[in-house]
């Protein structure tokens, strides 16, 4: 797969059994709309962003021009993340605050995930949630939106 552009954003998902939110960092290939990677945890730090992209790049053909579009979350504006993308010759684009339409692909994916998974399942713990999210990702990448 060639990465022409990626959109990444964090979605909060309720874990009822733990009475707290987990975070899902999703990276989509804008061209294919595939979920090419996600990271799920109770908190996501800049090191997790870099680690996720390292795993993604291990399995992809990296094109000459690469773009990553993200919001202005602390994980994405961190100096280490910006340096990482610069070292990998990736153009990092930031969306303007309160403009979800600037990252519409990821917003659409998270909306589908909300309808297909979050509103239909109650998670007892993060392991349960990860298993379900991985199954959803595989289904979505294979067959498209399940709605």
Automatic annotation (TrEMBL):
Q: Which Pfam families would you find in this protein's record?
A: rve
Q: Which residues form the Integrase catalytic domain?
A: 1-147
Q: What is this protein called?
A: DDE-type integrase/transposase/recombinase
